Structure prediction request, 114 residues.
Amino acid sequence: LDRFVLWMILVLLYVCFSAAPATLCKVCNIFKKGKCLQGEGNCTVEEGAGCRTTDMYFFHVRDEWRYNYTQLDCSDTCRAWKLIRGSLKVSIFCCKGQDFCNMYRGKSLRWTAQ
Ligand SMILES: *[C@@H]1O[C@H](CO)[C@@H](O)[C@H](O)[C@H]1NC(C)=O
Ligand SMILES: *[C@@H]1O[C@H](CO)[C@@H](O)[C@H](O)[C@H]1NC(C)=O
Prediction:
């Protein structure tokens, strides 16, 4: 009986550890209109981290911020934020729990229907 209890505990521990979901994220240096133009790959994140989507804008006199392209990768700190440095604006989104979810955040949302 003792051996059976021990075995059950081991099984429970195993289930708990493998239940921590690792999310697969898309990696891309230049992602535009739903397609990766440069530097395609995958990365995985454990709990706490997330898949990151970084939209790049540049300043344009006429329409202010103009969208240029998106970068996709994995991030240790999963949070959304914005940054303006000189004539470059960066808009960051983060997601987890769904494989390749970072392909469908920010500006890329517009091209999911294709
Ligand atoms: C990324 O993962 C997908 C799904 O597992 C796989 O089909 C694809 O070949 C991988 N791409 C790279 C560059 O490893
Ligand atoms: C926009 O992105 C391209 C890469 O796709 C880059 O070569 C170009 O310099 C960028 N334009 C601006 C104004 O930042």
Remarks:
- The radius of gyration is 19 Å.
- The longest helix spans residues 2-19.
- The pocket of 2-acetamido-2-deoxy-beta-D-glucopyranose (ligand 1) is lined by residues 40-42 (CB under 6 Å).
